[in-house]
């Protein structure tokens, strides 16, 4: 049985959500509703349904949505948990059936496409087409619901690049098997935003199978006061923190899941191998999912760095990752080794991620997207001496549909 869970502080649209539940071909479901606050009165038409379970929050006026969702899931009795926001709708018909089928096939996490509709005062129901920018890789397709035409947003494939940011990670509907949910630790009670992003990341890192329903099974209501708008700065900051913390682990998990080859130049250098010696004849005939070059590129000349980037790009599969860690030139010891021929700042990858700069530099054949650049300290000695390194994490653009800004 599927357990839908819905914390609510303002159940204005809860009856509409309930009506979309009643239009499902699957009738054996449980709906766990957790009202939060004195104004969260659940309508009688919902209370009277024996499949609805109204639970009391564990503590007065809980504010963190992570804590509320965790409490709702802990009260659920189903084999899988389906996130169902209090102002949204399920696509009428087979939404729950499609989710249920994926869990029967062994999924640990199930997601679908969603159609976003804007609230328009005086229009009942308040439907209006809405779509995300194609400049960030989004694609839409038309769906018909309640006699209206909407645009459904096609989910990105689950990869480290899509999963590391809330903007591109699987959107509604998001569902966890009971086993996958608790193995990942459940919702983080300390988070007031991005609780779902963190849980999806941790679910992926446990190795749980992710499955896509293959269509639009959720309708997301957009207001001017949605959380994604009202708390946008907090969401951005939390997303950046989660990406910095987990991206490396996501790449490691991804190459393991997909059985991709990994080339760790830093490990090879311990055996006497060097990038400079292999620029003329390549890294080998294998195609890699991940190439790692730590503490290496500063030993190459500028032209050699360019050829290294071209060669790494050619050696990566579409959507493969290149991780580079180099000394940061503005640190006190940024010029601290006479053998270093190249020096790096936050902007050093610009010729490889911006088309206009690549054209000006010449002989640059690679096209990367910079996922992030972070400041790191390779050892306690580096930290004690204020000697920062920069860690660049890049994704090879080779014609695949890619989340995030396109190569410019």
Question: Under CATH, the topology of the largest domain is which?
Answer: Spore Coat Polysaccharide Biosynthesis Protein SpsA, Chain A
The averaged pLDDT comes out at 89
**Strand content of the residues, in percent?**
25-35%
* Fraction in helix: 25-40%
User: Would you identify the CATH architecture of the largest domain?
Assistant: Alpha-Beta Complex
Order of helices and strands: EHEHEHEEHEEEHEHHEHHEHHEHEHHEHE
Structural class: alpha/beta
What's the level 1 CATH class of the largest domain?
A: Alpha Beta
Major pleated sheet: 10 strands, mixed
Number of domains: 2
Number of strands: 15
How far do the termini sit from each other? 48 Å
The CATH homology group name of the largest domain: Spore Coat Polysaccharide Biosynthesis Protein SpsA, Chain A
* CA-based gyration radius: 24 Å
Note the overall shape.
elongated
Write a structural description:
With 408 residues, the protein is α/β, with parallel strands linked by helices. It has two domains: 196 residues, Spore Coat Polysaccharide Biosynthesis Protein SpsA, Chain A (Alpha-Beta Complex); 137 residues, Rossmann fold. Helices cover 31% and strands 25% of the residues. The chain starts with a strand and ends in a 12-residue tail after the last strand. The mean pLDDT is 89.
